[in-house]
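subagent[fold] <- orchestrator: predict structure for attached chain, return tokens only, no commentary.
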Amino acid sequence: MSASNRGDVTPSEFVLEVSALEVSYESPVLHDVGFILAPGERLALVGQSGSGKSTTIGAILGLLPGAGRVSSGSVKYRGEELVDADPQRLQTLRGRSIALVPQDPMASLNPSMRVGDQIADALRTYGMKDSAEVTRNVTRLMTEAGIPDAENRRRSYPHEFSGGMRQRVLIAIALSGEPDLIIADEPTSALDVTVQKQILDHLQELVTERGTSLLFVTHDLGVAGERTDTILVMHEGRVVERGTPEQVLGSPQDDYTKALVKAAPSIVVEREAKPAENASDESEGEAASANVLEIKDLHKVYKLRGRGREVHALKGVSFAAKRGQTTAVIGESGSGKSTVAKIVLGLEKATSGTVLAGGRNVDATSRAERSILRRFSQPVFQDPYSSLNPMWSIERIIREPLDVFKIGTRSEREKKVAEVLDQVALPASMLERRPADLSGGQRQRIAIARALISEPELLICDEAVSALDVLVQEQILDLLRDLQVGLGVSCLFITHDLAVVANLADDVVVMKSGEVVEAGATKDVIDHPAADYTQKLLAAVPGSGLLNV
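subagent[fold] -> orchestrator:
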């Protein structure tokens, strides 16, 4: 039940009251936003990128970027007005009373400090002085946040953690002040379902046992529906619908909410796998394989600093990806799926085993062979902004592979750029713009265009839609399907999102702790999982009762 309908809570007892909030830059971008949050209540803000969710959080915390300002309205924490409050007072409240769990751990963690030291800094800021007590609490917080072997891992640096583990470090830091309001800004968008479930279970435990309130910003309607009491749907800076999860997701009233619910991917597989394509061309006198990629007994061992420690990231991985189809690789953070992608792309070297891309060994030593392989497989990464040069125009970014591979004349390259931009459904007016001028979905389309322009046979998409809201995600997945039909390109799709797998992939490979535990046609694996681990992954998918109907 939403706080606004509770008879046992008086206004003075609310943890957070936002009323008639307007935020402006050159002109208003947030309009008449209002909601209240009671002790122990869980409230979700949902909506696509640019809807005003993060701006609302920035206004609450007094952390609006640039020239952003609260132009009218009120934000009260336990009855205390925060709009135009003394900066020192806001700094005191942030962390100890109101904690933020941000989305991007690499932008929030100091890469030159051990993670344990960063948690310890937060504890000392909140008054803990005894060194032994600080160390004990660092280990406790890391353990509570789901980091195994916390006693040893506290000495590691952020780059030595997976994305999921780094996110847990941020949660441990947020918990260090024992706040009574946690603002979680897309805290699980890049996490696999089992890690996501563990994190959300822990946040829910805090809410239940400590009376902590939770303001949850997410584009995942399943998470919002399963984990919160009230959902507010935002669109173009306004709240367009609010209610219980059953009301908002089960019987949406606003057209925009209806579009969000319709776009949310379902874990139901509604199609059979396409027949594999047989390559008609021949390579070096031999007919090309029906498989675009063959991986055999792949091992990867990483050496860690000190005492000869090793991490076995891959342990005898074997599978094949068929031509003209999408093969998904799923598993938890640390399962080895991204390590496989890096080895296929030549960014990492396997300790042992064989990888054949188009029949060629990716460990080829000749310069000519390496050039062919680089053109054969092209990546599309999770975060397009970090993989696009911010100083370059979109035209130069897309054209770069043609320049590198010396394909075509200048006029031919210009024509090819225009063609591939049209293939990803973007206007020619984009060409002179910079990545910062584009939305997240537009940047991901640019990344796909750059990957396609050299006409690769295999796209390797590493969590390519995990950070996108459901409407943009649907557009990108539709684009990938259309490109596969139109161009015949094969796809190795690395993901933790089983609903995306169900909607996109023909075959699926399930990995755990560096090993393949199950593989087969997507419909067979999802409808009739044989491995206990696959069953666990499926059971952890949030919101299936509300969305998968």
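orchestrator: received. Logging for downstream: The chain has 22 helices and 22 strands. Residues 193-210 form the longest helix (18 residues).
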